[in-house]
Design a protein that fits this description.
By secondary structure, the chain is α+β, with helices and mostly antiparallel strands. The protein is built from 4 helices and 5 strands, in the order βααβββαβα. The chain is 33% helix and 23% strand. A hairpin with a 2-residue loop joins β2 and β3.
Length: 142
């Protein structure tokens, strides 16, 4: 069943995030706090009888420059054992519907790796296309 994540999903989301982004990127406490208090993010999960198989994160970007929100899908992960079952498509569809029903918007943005051709092909099949804008980032040295 695809649904919005709750604080009860914290432990499993921590394990999924460790698989996806690598251990040590965040803590269980930070995940729980984000699920409870971060109104700028929607987290969607797929739940198979109490086991989370994947997640989608949507950042709700809002600027005074525009009337609408610009939801950005920043993370999509499905455990390898559950891939090729339509789970990612179902989670993305749920996320899109949730955002359309709750926020004024006219498009979705999606962030994926430039060299991740498999993901790009998958997203293209769902209607996502390159907008020819370049995403830049800057690392902070600690």
């Amino acid at each position: 069943m695809v649904r919005k994540a709750t604080a009860n999903d914290t432990e499993q989301l921590c394990l999924l995030n460790d698989e996806f982004n690598g251990k040590g990127e965040t803590t269980t406490e930070n995940i729980r706090n984000s699920l409870l208090n971060n109104s700028q993010e929607v987290v969607i999960v797929d739940d198979k009888d109490g086991i989370l198989t994947g997640f989608v994160c949507v950042q709700l970007k809002k600027s005074f420059c525009y009337d609408d929100y610009m939801p950005e899908i920043t993370e999509v992960y499905v455990r390898p054992a559950y891939r090729k079952q339509g789970i990612a498509s179902k989670m993305l569809s749920f996320a899109e519907k949730h955002c359309m029903e709750n926020y004024p918007l006219h498009k979705y943005e999606l962030l994926t790796g430039d060299e991740n051709i498999i993901a790009q092909s998958f997203y293209n099949k769902l209607g996502y296309t390159s907008d020819k804008e370049l995403h830049l980032s800057k690392r902070i040295k600690k």
